[in-house]
Amino acid sequence: MLILLPPSEGKAVPRRGQPLDLASLSSPALTDARRDVLDALVTLCREDPAKAAEVLGLSAGQADLVERNAGLPSAPTARADRIYTGVLYDALDVASLSSGAKRRATSRLAVASSLFGMVRLGDRIPSYRLSGDASLPGLGPVAGVWREALPAVMTEALGRGLLVDLRSGMYANFWKPGPDLAPRVATVRVLHEHNGTRKVVSHFNKATKGRIVRALLEDGADPRTPAAFADVLRDLGWTVEAGAPGRTGTQFDVVVSEL
């Protein structure tokens, strides 16, 4: 099973650590694309900070993020599971997982990344700022770079297992599993039910996805089909409703009433 997570916009900033070594990251087939995106981002932030702030969607008070991007090649790194923060990652709380769950997290979790395409939790990366909808001068939309570079890498990473795709729409544009993989793809939507009305609420969605991933890792189950995945979630206490299988996989609604 491969569980694909969205990145967080906010990231922890390591105070010490070795500088970025692209060759040391998992999925070395992405090294050239990673270098292209990194070089374009660093060049923009060094040569035209004002333009960089505009491209990155930053306010005047976030100039430090442009400066941080400019120094990425020499910035200290840390494991990806210590870099990504926010509601989903707080709920997942990798640091407090049991030893067995931590081993499973290393092999089963991957994070979509605008800068690196896809990273594993043990990959050492710096803190950066780059949204999935950004377009960099001389390179173009980063989503386009990853649509070209990711398909073979993701297919290899998935192997013969089940893909649990928890990415948001922006990052789902980086790579979309083809119809041949659809029978092994499960996506999850979290619905908050209150007074008989259901709706998607970002905070509930992120927190619940983090808790689902944590529960799956602690349980250790390794479902091979979307239907088996839904059964595991139900056994773990979640209310799950299945959609019809389609060309992109099967969507499951997890219904929650409390955070």
Task: Describe the SSE topology.
Elements: E1 2-5, H1 31-47, H2 49-56, H3 63-70, E2 78-79, H4 80-83, H5 87-92, H6 99-108, E3 109-113, E4 117-120, E5 124-125, E6 135-136, E7 140-141, H7 142-158, E8 163-165, H8 169-172, E9 185-194, E10 197-199, H9 202-219, H10 226-235, E11 239-242, E12 250-256
Parallel strand pairs: 1-3, 1-8, 8-9, 9-12
Antiparallel strand pairs: 2-5, 3-4, 6-7, 9-10, 11-12
Helix pairs in contact: 1-2, 1-3, 6-9
What does this structure look like?
By secondary structure, this protein is α/β, with parallel strands linked by helices. It has one domain (2-256). Helices cover 39% and strands 19% of the residues. The chain has helices at 31-47, 49-56, 63-70, 80-83, 87-92, 99-108, 142-158, 169-172, 202-219, 226-235; strands at residues 2-5, 78-79, 109-113, 117-120, 124-125, 135-136, 140-141, 163-165, 185-194, 197-199, 239-242, 250-256. Strands 1, 3, 4, 8, 9, 10, 11 and 12 form an eight-stranded mixed β-sheet that branches. It has a two-stranded antiparallel ribbon with strand order 2-5. A two-stranded antiparallel ribbon has the order 6-7. Strand 9 (185-194) and strand 10 form a beta hairpin. It is globular. This is Peroxide stress protein YaaA.
